[in-house]
Model the fold of this input.
Amino acid sequence: MFNISKPSADNDLLIQHQIDHKTKPLGALGQLENTAFQLVKVLGRQAKKLNPQVIIFAAEHGIADFGVSIAPSAVTQQMVMNFTAGGAAINVFCDQHQYPLQVVDCGLRVELNEVPNLINQRLGNGTLPFHQHSAMSLEKVNQGFRDAKSLIHSHVQEGKNIFAFGEMGIGNTSSASALMSALLKLPADKTVGLGTGIDSESLSKKVTYIDDALALHKANLNDPISILACLGGFEIVQLVGAILAAAEQRKLVVIDGFIVSVAALFAYQIAPNSRDYMIFAHKSQEQAHDVLLNELSATPLLDIGLRLGEGTGAVLALPLIESALAFYYQMASFEEAQVDNVIE
Amino acid sequence: MFNISKPSADNDLLIQHQIDHKTKPLGALGQLENTAFQLVKVLGRQAKKLNPQVIIFAAEHGIADFGVSIAPSAVTQQMVMNFTAGGAAINVFCDQHQYPLQVVDCGLRVELNEVPNLINQRLGNGTLPFHQHSAMSLEKVNQGFRDAKSLIHSHVQEGKNIFAFGEMGIGNTSSASALMSALLKLPADKTVGLGTGIDSESLSKKVTYIDDALALHKANLNDPISILACLGGFEIVQLVGAILAAAEQRKLVVIDGFIVSVAALFAYQIAPNSRDYMIFAHKSQEQAHDVLLNELSATPLLDIGLRLGEGTGAVLALPLIESALAFYYQMASFEEAQVDNVIE
Done:
């Protein structure tokens, strides 16, 4: 469904030369220099400004009824209302930088009517509990990919060139850990963390349910699409589709914390070229995030102990990413500023 | 010269309660939560918006003529011209966020005439080389403190409530390392790093000159003011004064990389209460920065391999600091958003 090619390497030398001849010591802007290189390589030398779109994918999870979270599943819908009303952390950070925010219902248990600013891309009324059933059908995975793809296309047509994705779904760290376990063939105790702050009893339940699920679905865990159907969440499926769609359109994707990084790993396994379009926002407090970042050879920009989700890490990192593009296009070269060239 | 008291602890419980009751899991915004606490504690519960001022202190160094830097001393003046013309990295990042930037001549070798936006607070025509002479007189240190204090006062009267300080001065990592060595009683090889990228020959010169200087001035390295006179730079002296002045005025200071952190350590030694007003922006690539951060019990916000100076790290961290205040004042509580309180 996605045809993703690598960004052209034709301008690599030129881009690096320009970065190296800005009025600063060689490499002195650290990771911002790598980020600038990636941005200009992907977007070409015409896109002098980032035009971001933030999207939160939300859904409910069958597993959430089994005591794996600090909050009941109903909090997913309450937080979706909070997002659309403007009261959540992600709203505050988007407002601060005037980034447009969209909220997508990928499958709340109850369909909300007449909620302004809520996009309906529902794949069902929440997933089934993955330790007892397949979370969804294969057809739902494909539908989720198609829906995400058409959403991304509409934003690209409006000129958006960088996406920050977030998620909301009580229980979705359980789904994300199960997905990671299945894809990387790791037992649950290597992929499960404290989520948003559960106690050790809930933690051991989480591990047990995931190991049960890995056993139950054993015969169907051989490819990323089947794994998503068995263990996924509706929002995670759409995240994978959205990442792939953005990469296909040669746009950047800012990857948030643990759950979005699991989606990024699926995108990478489905289409390895998608990796070139990803920028990693932050290192989450979730313990397994380190393993994921390693698998994706990723060095995130922030490491400030975030574990909120919603895309907050991605949006907090976006100003740094904008700084990278800004220095590339706006900073003077040694020659322009008549500063002694200290690098040659 | 500075009378610095600790911020009031009267509202500590209230501030923490409000942070904890925002619609997010407890602690899920990581370091932004500590930062929000500090901001509200220092500024009180009326200042709902940060009003930043960025100031670069620039000066030339006698030691720069002795092969300790990648660039000749003349680059200091060239970069000051670059700052006032708007072409440097710090200009780009300030423009991006519309932070006002001021450049202060603390002692270039040649006085520049008719340069718009350049503040004259000259303490001399560059310092003397500190391995042969005292870099400056004690009177110059005091004059630098007075000048910095009156500059900060004028900004506070205009309503500025947070400062980001940067520096420019070829050779000033040598001065900063010497100052750190003298204050912490560490040999030069523990405080010297690669600066903006010198080779091993320059590095060993740097170590030798600093150890020579520590021996030469041995009798005068018993208090921070005398140490600053023996080994300081004019810009570093004014940085110390500016940090102390901002703390005295109960305003925040965002501490940039290695050189500004050395100034922060001097401010802390002169007036320990000043520490409560400091926010640490980033962990520099300069090896001794870790030791400094430890001395100051500081956990910086960014760790992205910066080693440019100019205040770039401080300005790149400022949007995160603004995010911290924004979530405190704008994010909904569980009650306001009708979200189940998951923390009680």
Remarks:
- Residues 52-318 of chain B form a domain with the Rossmann fold fold (CATH 3.40.50.10210).
- Chain B has a mean pLDDT of 96.
